[in-house]
Amino acid sequence: MSGRASIVIVDDHALFRSGVRSEVEGMVDVVGEAGNVEEAVRVIGAERPDVVLLDVHMPGGGGVEVIRRVAESDPGRRFLALSVSDAAEDVIAVVRAGARGYVTKSISGEELAAAVERVRQGDAVFSPRLAGFVLDAFAGAVPEAEVDPELDQLTIREREVLRMIARGYMYKEVAQQLDISPRTVEAHVSAVLRKLQLSNRHELSRWAAERRLVD
Questions:
Q1: What backbone torsions phi and psi does residue 64 show, to the nearest 5 degrees?
Q2: Using an 8 Å Cβ cutoff, are 120 and 1 in contact?
Q3: What value does the mean pLDDT take over residues 64-89?
Q4: Alpha-carbon dihedral 23, 18, 67, 198, rounded to 10 degrees
Q5: At what angle do helices 182-196 and 156-166 cross, to 10 degrees?
Q6: For the chain, where are the alpha helices, taking DSSP H only?
Q7: The whole model's pTM is what?
Q8: What CATH number does domain 6-138 carry, 3.90.1150.10, 3.40.30.10, 3.40.50.1820, 3.40.50.2300?
Q9: Domain 148-210 belongs in CATH node 3.30.1490.20
Q10: Cα(75)–Cα(71) distance, rounded to whole angstroms?
Q11: pLDDT, tens digit (0-9, with 9 covering 90-100), for 24-38
């Protein structure tokens, strides 16, 4: 491989996308941007970047859903997750989906460009702390709640909603916290209940408590 790596930036905050673009300018070629899952799948298919730089948490399923959708038609595409979250479950979920690396948004522009190039070359890129999560997960040492096959059915956004509902938040409060509409919260709850084969939020709360997903 020669020349600079080409990337598509996928994040639902336009201001953040602009910030990333300015930070890596001159070190990588930004060939496209996307703010949601549908747009990401379309832009990635059109631009075919060397590396997709994507956020974990976005409306419509987040980074995991982007990877899943792209992999259906383009299984060789490489992904590097870039997130504010350093939670083990987020790291594990996106790596299981197919990401080649995971870095947090505290990374510098030079470090990010270097991480992109390493992923482009086929390496896996994680900070030492995050790499530990991945190694533990694939060695079977991650707590049961983080590798529960039922929990793995849920998107990262559905897990966020699940935890908040289990803690007693009302739909409107969840919507305010996650910056989505109450109708979207309701749709996520319905999806969670269906996937987990539960009947109501009380059963959902009990299910979450049994798996120690709530404080």
A1: -60, -40
A2: yes
A3: 87
A4: 120
A5: 90
A6: 14-24, 37-47, 62-73, 88-97, 109-120, 128-138, 144-147, 156-166, 171-178, 182-196, 201-210
A7: 0.65
A8: 3.40.50.2300
A9: no
A10: 4
A11: 999 999 999 999 999
